[in-house]
């Protein structure tokens, strides 16, 4: 067996243990100090979204009452529904804003010619740093808040002229099949989800159907436990959209109000790479999200961890089954 440790080795081990304990305690102390500040920001965001959502909903109802806005035209039906796809060249931006975004209905934008790229956006170098052995791990890398994405920024401006980015643009890569089905918790946004490479099998649940689901509070979301890697939960969902998001297309949907679930499809050795640009739009956000932001200390604590990972490590990795 191994010979007994010398007094020097024992002292070094004790010192190392004390040092690690102090470092861990110091990190937790710092986190305890920062969390209330993060909480104040989240409380403000939740309050803003609650007031904004109700105010915009009332405004839209008044516009319809006086004939200044068309009635909703998209007809939902029980079971699986198809997502409408529009060519960028022929897009009616006002109609898409009023009849789709404001109603919480997802849609896809693409070019008529598949060879015409929507954007030359590329992920940062850190997006390739996920370890090969880190199987079933979601690798999230934030881009600069001020990063310019040709093509994508122009589409955002045409659809939501007065919006702004409420969150870092996030690149999703990693060796995983799918995360959990979830609703994002944070400043209420519309997600401009650009498929830079590969395909994703995607489920999106309508706003009112999402409200009926029992969801658990996660790191930065409300989610269905046990939904990573499967779609068993769909048997309890009355209606939903499902599509295969193609490369060089943008899926636009209400990520703060609709349950959504992405499943990676690896074909010809190409793993999916996606960019999520979340832009402020309070209408349709889930009230449980407002409450979680405003009054849930666990959400504040988790968000502090999440943001700290971006600031200190430049990325955030998590097991696919962990929300």
Characterise the protein shown here.
With about 325 residues, the chain is α+β, with helices and mostly antiparallel strands. The protein has a single domain (about 40-320), classed as Jelly Rolls (Sandwich). Helices cover about 35% and strands about 25% of the residues. The chain has six helices and 15 strands. The chain has helices spanning about 5-65, 95-100, 150-160, 205-210, 285-295, 295-315; strands spanning about 80, 85, 105-110, 135-140, 170-175, 180-185, 190-195, 200-205, 215, 220-225, 240-245, 250-255, 260-265, 275-280, 315-320. β9 and β10 (about 220-225) form a beta hairpin. α1 packs across α5 (about 285-295). The longest helix has about 60 residues, at about 5-65. Mean pLDDT is about 85; it is low at about 10-25. This is JmjC domain-containing protein.
């Amino acid at each position: 067996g191994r010979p007994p440790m010398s007094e020097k080795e024992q002292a070094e081990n004790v010192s190392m243990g004390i040092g690690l304990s102090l470092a861990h305690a110091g990190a937790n102390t710092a986190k305890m100090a920062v969390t209330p500040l993060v909480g104040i920001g989240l409380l403000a965001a939740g309050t803003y979204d609650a007031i904004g959502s109700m105010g915009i909903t009332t405004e839209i109802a008044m516009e319809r009452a006086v004939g200044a806005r068309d009635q909703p035209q998209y007809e939902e039906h029980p079971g699986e529904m198809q997502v409408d796809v529009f060519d960028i060249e022929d897009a009616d931006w006002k109609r898409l804003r009023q009849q789709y975004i404001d109603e919480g209905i997802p849609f896809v934008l693409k070019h008529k010619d598949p060879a015409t790229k929507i954007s030359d956006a590329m992920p940062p170098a850190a997006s390739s740093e996920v370890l090969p052995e880190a199987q079933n791990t979601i690798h999230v890398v934030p881009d600069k808040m001020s990063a310019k994405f040709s093509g994508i920024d122009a589409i955002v401006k045409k659809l939501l002229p007065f919006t702004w980015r409420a969150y870092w643009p996030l690149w999703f890569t990693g060796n995983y099949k799918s995360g959990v089905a979830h609703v994002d918790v944070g400043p209420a946004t519309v997600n401009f989800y650009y498929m830079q490479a590969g395909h994703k099998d995607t489920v999106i649940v309508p706003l009112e159907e999402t409200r009926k689901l029992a969801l658990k509070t996660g790191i930065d979301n409300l989610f269905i436990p046990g939904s990573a890697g499967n779609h068993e939960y769909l048997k309890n969902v009355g209606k939903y959209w499902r599509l295969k998001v193609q490369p060089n297309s943008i899926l636009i949907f209400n990520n703060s109000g609709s349950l959504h679930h992405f499943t990676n499809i690896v074909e010809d050795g190409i793993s999916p790479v996606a960019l999520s640009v979340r832009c402020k739009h309070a209408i349709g956000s889930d009230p449980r999200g407002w409450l979680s932001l405003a009054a849930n200390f666990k959400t504040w604590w988790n968000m502090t961890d999440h943001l700290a990972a971006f600031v200190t490590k430049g990325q955030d990795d998590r097991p696919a089954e962990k929300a």
